[in-house]
């Protein structure tokens, strides 16, 4: 089974999730999203497939969220996607995609639902 992780190697949660994916024997494609940011369509699909919506994909504690008012309840998904494309640090992580689904794995234990069943 294969997995894609949108990963920040400086994030402890992201490192734990990546370690769990490799321990489970998955072939992991690592996307360091700060170096290679996903495009707008990919972000929208992650938000949809993960069931979290665009606002759920936003890393709300980043200072870049409050300064331009991205935390306002009436800001559109389009504006949030534009901000995440322009500033990938605004993307919450780690996001994992496998054939079992897409999930923002925060806390790290959420990755367990995406792993193959134990034999």
UniProtKB/TrEMBL annotation:
PROSITE patterns listed in its UniProt record: ARSC
As for family, the record states:
Belongs to the ArsC family.
Record's InterPro entries?
Answer: Arsenate_reductase, Arsenate_reductase-like, Thioredoxin-like_sf
Q: What class of enzyme is it?
A: oxidoreductase
* Pfam family membership, one: ArsC
Q: What name does the UniProt record give this protein? A: Arsenate reductase
Reaction catalysis annotation: [glutaredoxin]-dithiol + arsenate + glutathione + H(+) = glutathionyl-S-S-[glutaredoxin] + arsenite + H2O
At the top level of its lineage, which domain of life is listed? Bacteria
Alphabetical UniProt keywords = Arsenical resistance, Oxidoreductase
Molecular function (Gene Ontology), one example: arsenate reductase (glutaredoxin) activity
Query: What are its E.C. numbers?
Result: 1.20.4.1
Q: Which residues cross the membrane?
A: none
Q: Which gene encodes it?
A: arsC
Family matches, as Gene3D superfamilies: Glutaredoxin
SUPFAM superfamilies registered for this protein in UniProt: Thioredoxin-like (SSF52833)
């Amino acid at each position: 089974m294969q997995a894609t992780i949108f990963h920040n190697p400086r994030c402890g949660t992201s490192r734990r999730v990546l370690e769990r994916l490799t321990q489970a024997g998955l072939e992991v494609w690592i996307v360091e999203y700060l170096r290679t940011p996903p495009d707008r369509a990919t972000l929208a699909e992650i938000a949809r497939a993960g069931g979290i919506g665009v606002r759920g994909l936003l890393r709300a504690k980043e200072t870049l969220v409050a300064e331009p008012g991205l935390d306002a309840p009436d800001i559109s998904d389009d504006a949030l996607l534009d901000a995440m494309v322009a500033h990938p640090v605004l993307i919450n992580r780690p996001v994992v995609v496998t054939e079992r689904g897409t999930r923002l794995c925060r806390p790290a234990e959420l990755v367990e639902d995406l792993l193959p069943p134990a034999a």
